[in-house]
Write a structure and sequence with these properties.
mainly alpha; single chain
Length: about 375
Amino acid sequence: MSTIVRQAVVDHVSAFKFSPPANVLAAARTDTAWVSSGARGFSRLRSNFHAPLLILMAGVSLLLLIVCANVANLLLARAIARGREIGVRLALGAGRGRLVRQLLTESLVLALVGAVGGLLVASWGSRLLVALAADGGRIPLDLGLDLPVLAFTLLLSLAAVALFGLAPALRASRVDLATTMRAHARAVGGGFGATTGRRMPAAKLLIAGQVALSVVLLTGAALLVRSLRALEQQPTGLDREHLLIVDLDVGARGYPEARRNALVQDLAGRFAGIAGVAGVSYSENGIFSGTESQSSISVEGFTARTPDDSAVAYDQVGPRYAAAIGARLLQGRDLEARDNNQTGYLALVNESFARFYFPGANAVGKWFKTDTTSVLI
């Protein structure tokens, strides 16, 4: 498989109009092809959101542990309060195993009620979140509760019962009949129950676990909020405060290219005529859209060490694009409408591009080549 892929890549690179560097061809001949199962389909969203969803699941798991520890503490306190009832059952001949099964059944009913409520909230909440994210549009996501989701919820409920319902049940079944009856007799006579001063190591352990997990969860949430604030304040080189982005997918409506270009020009003219608009331009991919076009380039005097050194992301934009998005030009000029009448292509490049491919030199007026044409900076 790797041999076939390598040869296909070499043939593709060799078909370029320019001669690729020898090290790029050597890297293409040693590339390894990775094969994965297609049974679950292929989605870039899965690879993009795999790590964030794992972080989200970790936070949800910690929250679930905190809630389960809280419920276990309440069950433990309730079981101790039912000491007389359990003592009477034991005195009448009930076995300890039977009492444990009864208490576990009560915990199971509580867990199942919580699971059903959680499924209902998840079904309603997921649709609400998708509706908010769609912003009036439509996101093709299947939000139905399938069999794996229901099975996972059931297994999680059983695990919660086993972990946090068993300890209170075992603690409640270990009752000293004589002590329990004497405590009840004193309580009936107006005295204080012996259980009021009883120490509960399990309860203290659960409380300590709750506090520890809460600290971990709050610390992670604080770091996440701090990271989000840092991203919001990260300088992008654009005037985000006065920038309005309009997204149009006219290609999906079946517009031919000529009609599409006419529509873009008409909309740009109408937007420019609105009072308070400082500049209007357009682009194929758009900024902050998460999509980009990619190509391999060749720069005279630059030697690529790896194929990634020749890979660049680009976007096809309209006149006065830098001025419209509020980008500050360090050198050169912005694109103009008259540039459409020139032969060849013109490009605006960022500072990182200029430093990487033209270190110590002025990039304005330089050329680079793609696999199909030459481009002037």
